[in-house]
Amino acid sequence: MLWFPPPGVRARCCSYPAQRSWMCSASMEDVEDSPPYSPTYEELVEVITLAMVVLNINCPAKREDVHPKRLCTQIFREEFGWYQGKVFCFVHLSIQEHLAALYVYLFCANNNRNVFDEVNRRSLLSKLKDWFQLNSSEHVSLSELHQRAVNEALQSKNGHLDLFLQFLLGLSVNTNQILLQPLMKQTRSRSESNKETVEYIKKKIRTTRSPEKFINLFYCQNELGDHSLVEEIKYYLKSGTIKEAKLSSSQWSAVAFVLLTSEEELYMFDLKTFVVGNIKAENMLVFQKLLPVIKESRSVHLSDCGLTDEGYAALASALRSNPSHLRQLDLSWNKLGSSGVTLLCAALKNPCCKLQILWLWEYGVTDEGCAALASLLRSKPSHLSELVLSWNNLRDLGMKLLCTGLEDPHCKLEKLWLRDCGVTDKGCAALASALRSNPSNLRHLNLSENNLGSSEVQLLFDLKDDPHYKLQELYYCEYIFI
């Protein structure tokens, strides 16, 4: 049995930065004193209508428009602040999205009308109520409704209609149709409409560039019971032939969906697992399609893949995502240079980013890149514990710039690789000075294949005897000194 507040409770639409929730003013005494109550069809229509109103952020309900008589308190919670008195809102946004989908479906099935063709801002709530009572002489197919809903969801910039779309499509399958019979005034053929919708979604998957959008489209296909493309991709993954499969854009989207919905943990992602050779255009296509997988992985290897400026921007977005799962990143041999390093370091400074290991072998890092890396090491908090810069032409100036980060107390670096970086005695002296000024966490230092004099190297060996210094391994020439 559902509990509803007594008649006269007033609802209002409230705006939040990230979402809109429908709220109604009421006192707790009103709720506690109300008897058990079963909603009528009209009252259910009122609730699902309001859910549709506030889901559409472009058509907010005005306070004077909303006057529900009774309201199910089991799907609402009490909140305080910002408004006078106590208010109620949906306990979870997904409940609101499900009720909105139910409204749109019943609006079409019972009244032969497409809500997306009729809603506008003016007197929105009253129009929706009136339309729910009216039938249209024109036939509106479920396929037309689905396609319009798909387009609306794809046009949404913040994805606020994604889950709503899944709910709407799920209401069209046979099992849910049985449950909806008490609310249905008429029945109509669904199988052909669903087939048309599946084909329309496949078409959109082929043309949609946003990773988040096409992933949601695959969830929509699942709701309609179409698993053909997903099953095909599972075969390629299990057989190990995915590199030779020459997949289309939509098939790569399916790869991302399969990996994200797998029960196995996404620990390591290596782009070379999916591509053959070093064709930049092909690599970037696969990279863009599998970006949602990269966001969920802990270790990502993108070495020698021809990463472009657009690719770096997408990767920076992944590093700033909340939560960020990435802990290890290999970008070696991409040679984008200091511009790529600067963009990367800006993303790594984001509070959401928790990257610990960064490999930049032969990356084209110059003085500007060293300055950006030093700024990253000085940032608070700094999570980076391992940095590989081997085979970059840093020279002494780059080494001195990097040392401004190493000498900072916020630096948490434990391993530093500087093999064949063009460092001479001056750079080595600056490094020794930086490490002495900050008894840091550095335990492993590789300076192999640099033109260093014995006196400067001795400065580093002397630090090993310092009880405040933690250096355990020092590589010089081709030997290791412990």
Automatic annotation (TrEMBL):
Annotated ranges, domain NACHT LRR and PYD: 92-232
Swiss-Prot/TrEMBL keywords: Leucine-rich repeat, Repeat
Keyword Nucleotidyltransferase among UniProt keywords: no
Keyword Repeat: yes
Domain of life: Eukaryota
Database matches in InterPro entries: Leu-rich_rpt, LRR_dom_sf, NLR, NLRP_HD2
Pfam family, one: LRR_6
Name of the featured protein: Ribonuclease inhibitor
Originating organism: Anabarilius grahami (Kanglang fish)
